[in-house]
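Section 3.1 - Work completed
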Amino acid sequence: MNLYLRLLSLLLRLWIQQPPRRDMLEESRVAFRVLPNDCDINFHMNNGRYLSFMDLGRVHLMAQSGLLPVILKQGWMPVLTAAEINFIRSIAPLQKFELVTRLVSWDDKYFYIEQKFESRGALCAHAYVKGLFLLKGAKVSNAEVVAASGYAGAPPPLPEELRLWAELGNAKKQRATEN
């Protein structure tokens, strides 16, 4: 339940502050605090909570790039297809942290996003996710999404650590066309 309240709080902050529209490649930063119900029996933020906070970070990124109203109007549904997260340092109860989210690149099928949890000047967790947008079960073209953001450039080069994901996606696509 508290994540719905955090989502409402985030949307309210965005609505009140109305941040200037930014380039879709600019990073998003949003601050949170670990509440007691975010913690596990080891008395630090539960591993599953990181993924939930990451959802909020991506909402913030879409809002600051001006995409959120378009996504809502068009009925597009953002869907994750993979996530890889590395936990580096614990985040304790009541500790503040900042979630940094940025769009790394995209190809014909997926958007690749980096998300970092930072607290007290240190990196606490680092994640990459890949996802896409659906409309009534069909994939929305990434070109359409990018155009809706107002971005006119080419996608940035995919970092080496993400190339395997792209290659796996292309291999699956190729096998599906062959069958």
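Second construct:
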Amino acid sequence: MTNRFDMNIKKIIVFALVLAIIVPIASFIGCERVQQVVQPATPQEVPDGEILVGAVYPITGRSSLAGSPVEYGIELAVSEINNSQHSDVKIKLITADGQSTVEGAVEAFNKLIHQDKVSIILGPGSSSQVQAAFPIAHQNQVVAISPSSAASGLSAISDFVFRTNLTTDVLIPNGVRVTQEKLGYQKVATLFDEIDLFAQTSDAELRKALTDSGVKILTTESFQTEETDLSAQFTRIKASNPDAIFISSTVADISNILIQGRALGVPSDIPFIVNLTLSRDLVAAAGDAAEGTITFTSWHSTADTLGNQTFVQNYSTKYGMEPNIWAAQFYAAVHILTKGIADAQSTDPKAIAAALAEIRDFDTILGPFSFNDVGDAVYDPVVLIVKDGEFEVFE
């Protein structure tokens, strides 16, 4: 069997071409990834000392709104792990600012790997950043786990890379099924950011899922990241008279999009359905314009998954606010990483990657968690709706 750690440049080029045409990755769980990870000849036991883990998230820039919740989620999880009497794993965290840009994520990965000498990195956050940073992890044989990126196909480049957020090829078909059954929409419009990778792949997955469900797409409108005037796009969308409007955008742009849509006369009985995981912060920023918005997501604060209510309570007590989706995702990712380290009983990144690939039905605040054969997450997706400024399960 060919060893994927010896992947040559030709395979990387082929992967990039495949990703560019958005070929969905199968979501079933397999053993191929485990078999192809090269195990170290002599596994090392986890030492009593700390293991260095890097974390890349947006401390500055357009997406820095998510920075504090991410920091708090990581901090809480690391504190629990380091103080646990049931695990020998101790984590020493080194953070780096992804700067809300692709270039920032690349710079952060290179710093953590070459200056700080970490062999494990948590992050980055966005799909565009992951597309650029994951090859660096592969080239340097460093384990990288992105807790929040969702564009399909990004984990397939290497057995060293994983993602704990659900991907668009899981979230969107489920979300379309659930919302179409409940709302009965037959004709819709889509609006997406033509620059952002997540938004591009999200809209492509969405249009496929809608077409497969027999829903007519009246118009597909696009815009560019940081574009502030969407009056032309919403004018055309309104004229098409859709039953619902699907939006795929970056975190930083979504509140403005919701506000503009309602301000430009999109009636409240036409729901916005967002293919981006909304957070409380984004809902608060959009105000009344967010009311009735539906989002496809991977976690909610009222879920009865194992440990979730304890997490919400501990986070709220410590930081004076309820956790949002970004805090929850990074918190869960730290615990998933810790299981991989403990199961590997080694500090060698190859052994840790192999152990992570074998995780099946591990209880987390996200629910019973597994990795599939390409390193993407497997657990139950959630559909939420904003009512009176709060999230409720859409059912």
